[in-house]
Amino acid sequence: MVTVLAADSFSYPGNVALPGQNGGTGWSGAWVSDSVSFTDFYTNAASLAVTGVASAGGRAVYRAGSQLNDAARTLPLQNTGVVFVQFLAQFGTQSGGGTPNIRFSSSGALTGAVGNNGACGSAVYAILNNNLQAIPASCSAVTLATLSAVVLRIDYTANNTRMWVLPGLSGFDYLNPPTASAEYDGLAPAFDRLSFYTRNPANIDELRIFRVDAVVDGECGGAAGQAYAFAPTAQLCTQGTPSVVVSDPGKYSWVCSGSNGGAASGTCEANWAVAGTGTGSVAPPDNGWAVTSATFSNTLPGSPPANASFPYGLVSLSLNGGAVGSATSITIHYTTPVPVGAVYMKYGKSPAGFNCSGAACAQDHWYLMPEGQVVVAPDRYSATLTITDGGAGDDDLIANGAITDPGGFVLLPAAIGIPSLSQWALFLTAILMVLGSTHRLLIRDARAERLSCIR
Which of 5, 283, 434, 442 has its CA at a distance of 20 to 30 angstroms from the CA of residue 198? Predict the structure, then answer.
């Protein structure tokens, strides 16, 4: 894909001063005289012609005489990426005295040029530095008097300038060009102004400044077709830029857009992770927390409660990024509804009272998630867990900005259960009520016996 930054085909009336002409595109103003000491470039109605370059008519020429001629034009600053400067030219057989060349400058300072200044030992096209000097590698083998298509590739990232001086441009591949005619490593002239400086004769035509980028079609990456417990973030696209990953029941989807005019990919898809007899997905948590890992597994740690079944296996979550000691809510989605009567059990360490007491609480064990920390959606296809860093549900029980949360839904036999903290409270209350009733009966019987004796 070619992006033209500035261009001028010199389609002006013949035999007029070039300064003041304002044709072409991308420039910041009209042509001007670059120095009051020299004579202006003029125009000629006839164009230069080489194969592979379409001429629009007209060219810039040296005006008759013996003085230097000059002209200059400004454009937006070019100093990033890769920029091409291309023109047709035919100069005289001499070089030196600062000519002939097309100069680059930035903010009024000379940064480089193409042409010659007597530095190559012969009058050939060369890449020149900011002192208008060449190095051996920057001298081509093509004489200035040869009508040529000159292509300059300025790579600001690699700090390198390459030049091709060719009789024509038919079949020239800008992305994979042939061996350069000349090269100057360590030179990449930034410029916001181009200037012509030549002696007689000089002909310049079809000046273009442009970028060339490969057309890239979007292509799905290695994440497509894989299974994930939470939305993938890596290997989304082999080529192109990925869209936001959308999570739908059972799958994640995204599109890889093309660049430089390339087409977008089709829809890329990845599956939710296997969770029991269905699949499951973990949505991003809130309150600044992020999922660092999430896995569903049918392999259970420890010894689960007798005859208990885990319809989705166990989900192991690792979260971080939140404030130390803060809470976060995270939603788990399933492709099958949470069974009525299922409870959410955790495996790990817990505070006292969660199916443990004393030192046993520091050992991994099964316990019910506290009431209010598990909310099943009305349609039962998702559940939201609320966990506090360092609290019940966080396996290390330490407020440290990291939450580890292994657990899952469990179906328990009717006669088997693991009391939660609230269930233990109800049990103790019932015992106290029974003891209280017994105590009142004993007092009543004692009083009745004393009255009997008095009578």
Answer: 5
